[in-house]
Amino acid sequence: MPPTPASRLRALLARPGLVRALVPHDAFTARVVEQAGAEMLFVGGFGAAASAHGLPDLGLLSSAEMAECVRRITARVSIPLIADGDTGHGNGASVAWTVRQFEQAGAAGILLEDQVDPKRCGHFAGKGVVPVATMLDRLHAALDARRDPAFVILARTDARAIEGLDAAIDRSCRYAETGVDLGFIEAPRSVEELARIAREVPLPQLANMLPGGVTPLVPLVDLERMGFKVAVDPTSTLALTGFAVRAFARAWLEGGTPGAETAGRLTFEELKAVVGVGEVQGWGEEPAWRVPAAVAHARLLLDSFARVVGRELLPRGGSAEAEARRLHDAPFVVVSHGTEADPRLNYGNRAALELWEMPWEALVGTPSRLTAEAVHRDERARLLERTRQVGFVDDYAGVRISRTGKRFRIEQAIVWNVVDAEGEDHGQAATFAHWTPLPPVLVG
Q1: N or C: which end of the chain has fewer CB within 10 A?
Q2: In this structure, are strands 182-185 and 152-157 parallel, antiparallel, or unpaired?
Q3: What are the tens digits of pLDDT across the range 27-61?
Q4: By the 8 A CB rule, do 184 and 205 touch?
Q5: What SS3 state is found at 394?
Q6: In the CATH hierarchy, which fold is given to the domain comprising 288-438?
Q7: What is the pLDDT of residue 339?
Q8: Does residue 207 contact residue 187 with C-beta atoms inside 8 Å?
């Protein structure tokens, strides 16, 4: 089975180094930051309340409203997301319901905090915290409620502003004992306090770099050296949007020339790419996998797999089109290339298109060597030659790269020769269900 959002998040968190999460306030900004290279999102209450209702982060959003915000974002991005669950919105049953709503909406994790209701932004005055025992009950309810055991629970404490740093560290250590996955002490007031948190709490920690907040803004490389696992800036996508829109509004109202300020905006072509105009225009058309040539190729892949590997790739039966649909929709990657001197991809199912971040039209015809970085292409060529000689390989693992430069390691892949009933060679194909995101290669 392909990895769930939660398992992809866990793989990301298991990598060495700091995860630089981005904090969108709606689906549009989520797509912008994903296309800029973000590997993880955090959806906070501040941006969600401001974007959806023009309201402050004072506990006004319900769990259902936050889940709907998550659902809209996860429908349009492929990277994992942690969502702000505030206090869990009530008693243990309410916490459990919030967790389940977020999971069903596509979140990979949830943040829960120890503020009293109604909660408020962690950098606002007038906060209060519940007793430790109450927060432990919230965390146990969340851990018990998750359907996917990989779903990530992040435990936040706001006790620094009320009880002091020692008490906040003690609380975070107590929360760690429940088995939660990440910790977060809100609003430390110095670099030294940040360093203590990273050093003394036995949990991977999130650092909140809020411009204008009470915590000093520390270079991300220094947060990484301290030992923090995740860093977020919770308001900048919102603040930058507000700044740019206000500047435009003033210029427009003061009689400016339409379109004059082009340097500080997306072009219309970029804007269309962000929202996926080409993708959406294709929704009402006949899908590429359904054209006769693709249906025939899908059957060739299924027949050759059974012939060469000795078992079925998926359950057979029904019309050729029905089998082609099952192959396209399969919960594992299937991709193939032809017999050209520089083989070109000629098939990718839905999982392959999503993994390599290409529409069918872009994938088909692409030299298959480009699915691997240059440094890994010799190793890939050796794999293909070994497959030609023995018929199939069922233990392959290697590094690949998507169209946008995202690297991932595939595991337990089967690579086989695509041959028809007469023994004619039609190229090679691969299938796999396990892959792990890898960090980008830093240059310089």
Answers
A1: C
A2: parallel
A3: 999 999 988 888 899 999 889 999 999 998 888 88
A4: yes
A5: strand
A6: Beta-Lactamase (3.30.450)
A7: 93
A8: no
Lookup: tokens for 278: 């080409």
Amino acid making up residue 368: S
Burial of 226 (0-12, 13-18, 19+ CB in 10 A): middle
Rounded to whole angstroms, the maximal C-alpha distance in the chain is 78
What are the residue ranges spanned by the domains of the chain? 5-242, 288-438
Measured distance CA(85)–CA(113) in Å, rounded: 8
- Phi and psi, residue 248, nearest 5°: -65, -45
φ/ψ region of 3 (left if φ > 0, alpha if ψ in -120 to 50, else beta) reads beta
**Two tokens at 161?**
């502003």
Beta pairing partners, 437? 408
Say if residues 413 and 439 touch (Cβ distance below 8 Å): no
Task: Burial-class residue 129 by CB neighbours within 10 Å (0-12, 13-18, 19+).
Answer: buried
pTM score over 0.90: no
Give yes or no for a contact between 241 and 26, defined as CB atoms under 8 angstroms apart.
Answer: no
Domain 5-242 matches domain 288-438 at the CATH topology level: no
Phi–psi pair at 205, nearest 5 degrees: -115, 145
CATH of 5-242, one of 3.60.40.10, 3.90.1150.10, 2.60.40.380, 3.20.20.60: 3.20.20.60
CA angle 327, 289, 277 (to 5 degrees): 120
Report how far Cα 310 is from the mean position of its chain's Cα atoms.
36
Produce one character per residue of 175-208: b if its CB has 16 or more CB atoms within 10 Å, e if not: bbebebbbbbbbbbeeeebbbbbbeebebbbbbb
CA distance 187 to 213: 8
56 preceded by a cis bond (ω within 30 of 0): no
Average pLDDT across the chain, whole number: 91
**Look-up of token digits 């390989």:** 393
Which position has the higher pLDDT, 172 or 285?
A: 172
Give the three-class secondary structure for 110: strand
Cβ–Cβ < 8 Å for 66, 110: no
* Those residues with Cβ within 8 angstroms of residue 83's Cβ, 6 or more apart along the chain or in another chain: 42, 43, 66, 67, 69, 70, 102, 105, 107, 109, 110, 111
